[in-house]
Design brief:
The chain is mainly beta. It has one domain: Neuraminidase (6 Propeller), CATH 2.120.10. The protein is 4% helix and 52% strand. It has one helix and 29 strands. The chain has one helix spanning 3-19; strands at residues 28-34, 42-47, 64-69, 74-75, 78-79, 83-86, 96-99, 105-111, 120-126, 132-142, 144-152, 155-165, 175-184, 190-197, 202-209, 214-221, 228-236, 241-242, 247-263, 268-275, 280-285, 291-298, 308-310, 313-317, 323-328, 333-338, 350-356, 359-366, 369-376. Strands 15, 16, 17, 18, 19, 20, 21 and 22 form an eight-stranded antiparallel β-sheet that branches. Strands 1-2-3-6 form a four-stranded antiparallel β-sheet, with no helix packed on it. Strands 7-8-9-10 form a four-stranded antiparallel β-sheet, with no helix packed on it. The radius of gyration is 19 Å and the shape is globular.
Amino acid sequence: MSTRLLSALFAASLALAAHADDDPRQYQHGASIVELSGQAPQLIWSSSGLPPKGAEPDGSWSHDIYVMPFDGKIVDGVPQNARVLIAKPEAQEPASSAVNSAGRLMVTMEDGWNARRTIAQRYGVYDAALKPIRGYPQMVEDGGHSGHVAAAGERFVVFYSTEWVQGGGENNLGSGRDVRVRVYDGGGRLLHSTPISVGRRDWWPVLASSPTRSLLVWQRFVPNSGQARLFAAVYDPERGQLAGAPFELLHDVGYYRYQVAWLPAVGRFVLAATRINGEGRAWLIAPDGRRLAQLSCLPPPQREGSPVVDGTRLALPLGDGGALLLNASAESLKVVGRSASRPLLSESGVVGRFTGANELTLLSLDRIGLARHRLNIAEPEPVADCPLPPTALE
């Protein structure tokens, strides 16, 4: 299939998405919390304005990338001390950010501005004062999309999709074709480029990273179905190659409904997902890919709800409101309960921090702006017993 045709199909899918009145991503999409030296924790996210205005009259999106302190003042959804980090015509979304061990920041995003193939995956690298080291617009790949970044020591690992296949998927918009990793040094210079899966209709790649290993997670298209298959693989950023074969976790994950985090205190990854039937699952995964523990019959983790990590404590934003609280060790993952308060959360980005021994604060990218939810977690409610028989590690 020609590059021109692929670009046309991808453009058509984007236009359909932009005209979907119920798509919350047209307002805001993609959020990260970063720890920069000498500063309070910062929120970096993509928005169509302050307050967000949604799609343009022609249906196109026009997000810029903003930064503000996580605890910054918000009035009626509008942050009062946000500033623009990246602004160009068309949309720079969803923003994904990471800080490496040297304190440098990488931000990556899909970009509709000045791309030969309709869309491009781009990035910028900045110091702790947000001054450019290799500033935007740097190119990951023209035609790339849906990328996310994590830091592995001083390296940055960008996991992204290439190509687009029209039809099927969510709202019949189609799917990606391939997923690929590119590794950069702390100055933003390319070190490795590694195909992870080619020609399988894979997309929406997300990742988390330890200093030496990255856990890559993505979904695979299932023909004539409203569900996807969920895959993961461990990647070695130093060598630029997989550290083991990809493995399948679920055959029926809901589109885009999975997230992954690294827990430094226990040296493990946690992956959470929602099946098409609404059941939540979570896995504790070792850096070598071993699945050490699995939880089934959980409340459904929210789409694009980033796990909140504090030592051995973990909180998962939930699709039916509030958060699920977990404790992790090197060998186990246990449910503590769920927050008694259950505010509804966005599907286009939720991040948070434990802001006290008994408080969890979430920021949700809503249609009208940013929503801050402070949840008292002193007395979490029990999670209902599982109505299904227990399942073995898959």
